[in-house]
Structure formats: C-alpha cells, structure tokens
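Shift notes (night). Ran CxC2-like cysteine cluster KDZ transposase-associated domain-containing protein while the centrifuge was going.
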Amino acid sequence: IVIIDKSGVHRLKVQCCDCPNAMSPDIQMFRHGLFPTSFNKPKTLFTFRVLDDFLLDNLECSTLVMNYYSKLQQMTLSMFPHLGPVMLYLHHFKDIILTKHWRQLKAMKWHGFGHHSDNLNAGDLTLFCPTCP
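Came back to this:
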C-alpha cells in the first residue's frame, strides 16, 4: 500500500487485524490515523497529519494540490534517491482530491456533527457572526 505522509510518499506493507471480533479494516485504519482513498480495497492511504498539513498550507498559502504533491515527491526523492520516481504515480495526485472530504469532516466535527448522523440543514456549518442580523 502507498502511504502518503508529511514526510513524503512511502510504499509499505499493511495488514489489518482479521480476528473474529476485530473492527472493520476502515475503522482500524482511522484509529491509526490513516484515511483510505477507497473503502473496498484501498491501495493508497493518507495520514491525518498530511491532510491537516495540506489544509493549513492551502488556507494560509493558497497552495494548490498539484504543488503540494510535487513538494511531497521532492521530499521523498531527496530522502530515498535510490527509489527513483517509480513509486510516485500521478494517480496519487488524483487521490489527494479526498482533501475535500477531509475538509468537510473537519467542519462537521468543529460544528458538533462529528458524533451523530443528524442531517445538516442550510447554514449549519457557517460561523457565528455577532455583527450580522
């Protein structure tokens, strides 16, 4: 599985617990701080750290997804030059689009919708402004 972290792009073997009373693989990944790009057979996982870092870069520096991914590629290649660009595929760039889902989940959590499945109404995720009527 390819794991994309703040430190770069890494290919690691991941084994979820298959015990009879084990949680589902996606919940196990979430508990370990990993966000899968697919819930059926994930081939790429993003760490919560890299998703939070991208959101901050995007908010403060207007960093585009492609530029952020290029930075991760350069970090990986500088640390592991013997690997070359073999493991850095463009489809991982497409996978990072899941940052939109991450941003939505964070907004829901910040506004108190993180632990129940109530439907959101229009304006539920807006910030309170004391000067607005």
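DSSP finds five helices and four strands in the chain. Helices lie at 25-31, 48-61, 65-79, 90-95, 99-110.
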